[in-house]
Design goal:
Elements lengths: L11 H12 L3 H34 L7 H49 L3 H5 L3 H43 L1 H48 L1 H6 L3 H53 L5 H43 L20 E8 L8 E8 L4 E6 L5 H8 L7 E6 L2 E2 L5 H6 L1 E4 L10 H6 L7 H10 L3 H4 L19 H15 L3 E5 L7 H15 L3 E5 L11 E6 L2 E6 L1 H6 L3 H7 L16 H7 L2 H6 L10
Helix pairs in contact: 1-9, 2-3, 2-5, 2-9, 3-5, 5-6, 5-9, 6-8, 6-9, 8-9, 13-15, 15-16
Amino acid sequence: MPNPSQKQYATGGQVFRIYFRHVREYPLLLGLIFLGVVGIQIADLAGPWYLRQFFNLLASSSPESGVVPQLLGVVAVIGAIYLASWAIRRVQEWGTIFLESRVMTDLFSSTFEYLIGHSYNFFISRFAGSLTHRVSKFVRAFEVMFDAIILQFFPTFLFIMGAVIVLFARNRVLGAALGVWAVLFVVFQLYVARLRQPVRAARAEADTRVTAGLADSISNHSTTMLFSGKRHELGLFNAVVEVWRKATLRSWIADNAIWSGIGLFMVAIEIGLLWGATIYWSKGLLTVGDFVLIQAYLLTTFDRLININRELRRFFDAFADSSEMAYILGEPHRVADMPSARPLVVSEGAIAFSHINFSFGATQLVLSDFDLNVRGGERIALVGSSGAGKSTVTKLLLRMFDIKEGAITIDGQNIYQVTQDSLRDAISFVPQEPILFHRTLMENIRYGRRGTSDEEVVEAAKKAHCHEFISRLPYGYDTYVGERGIKLSGGERQRVAIARAILKNAPILILDEATSSLDSRSEAFIQDALEVLMQGKTVIVIAHRLSTIMKMDRIVVMDEGRVIAEGTHSELLERDGLYQELWSIQAGGFISEPGEQEVNLEELAETEGTDEKEEKDPPTRTPAK
């Protein structure tokens, strides 16, 4: 299991490859932006050149010399250049807006698709809040980095190159001086950027930890409240924020030091070029207009370099943000379909586990040489002490984890040679603690078989005894259930999960403690719903309460990752063993014989909700805004 506190960042090449893969999908927009950038730089270089001519005319003429029409002509050219620059800039901005919006949409979609394809183990090893924060930062970092490159870095590079060429044409020494200065400035920026990147990465990591800590505490608010942990949680959160403050302070101090170096560079080139220009002017090699040209180029260069340095902080912050998610996008899916994977075809639903050895990481084996055969249509129960490996068996069947030794087959087809979607389409799983989407009850039930009609959803709800309590809600099936279904009671969530499984109607059914920790009323409804759900299916039931599996076709007793006994309830009781020991300390009486059911479900349906209305807060029955 990966350590979530371990620093995990992608390289610059990995980040840019991901972004470029999405940008190149829009070559026309990218080409339009590129032409716009080039056109704007040409205009910005041409304007000062004509200003040079304007001031040369002013310096060498008088108002009486009739030079005014010529001056006005130069002004008209300058105006046309600036107007063309304005128009080109609008086109470039239009292209940038459309490109960024489309690429960011694609990034959201592709990032979510790849992220959701990671394994079960991946998600239980990380904070959900941290992952969602990383996705958002990764997509928004593209906008910052693309703007920086297209609107700052690349245009400034073109402008400085053009300024060096123009000055070199007027005076080789001054042009070469500006060129050497530009190279030294870039080397300085790259050098300090590499020095401060670890500081920025530490700040991004601290920012992610703040988000993760905040999400963890908020999602466990009830535990905090019940254990009077407000001060404790505040202390933990303040400690994380203090780490963030120190990392941010170090980042800002580094930026301030860099600003000092940039200021010295600017003073040096300003004094150096004006000094040299004055010497050459005194020799008649430069004109007054050349001073205007030099100063215009320097002022534009300084303005852009200042903006670049400001942008660099945002750029590297964005890079640090994006590198966290890019690392995850570069992490291969631990559970993936084989290239030749084919859809699973279920005819009987027979399941076979053969010589399975499995462990989580390098720890002790959870399953050791595990063998189990389940006939098609057979109902079996897995029982044993906690840690015996019962839940692991079902997780392996669902391919939440992959095994390295042994094989698992369904109707003779190895589940590692079929597609994951087809495998899970063939299995209905009802967990001990069902997790629901913060969506309507209609949507949550329909998730079992998306695309079904409302009538089919209602019919499944009736079979699962959901309809009784849903019909009493003010908004009925349009009621939102809250995050993870928190607005419903445990029994209600369980029945919704069973309704979802009934609607799915898969040939294989897994029940993981589906009736544990429920009150008698909820358990009675769920017992009846499970009888409907199990008809005609291959069923694997995990149970600690042995009374719930007395009528299974076969009970499989597990201990330390192995099958140590199997048989019917009565057969296992006749033997001295773990099952008899477990039974002796439990009370029996679930899945009773027909006619033995003492609970009247119709009477329960009529009275259901009267107790819960007193316990529940009224807003839980309203839809989300």
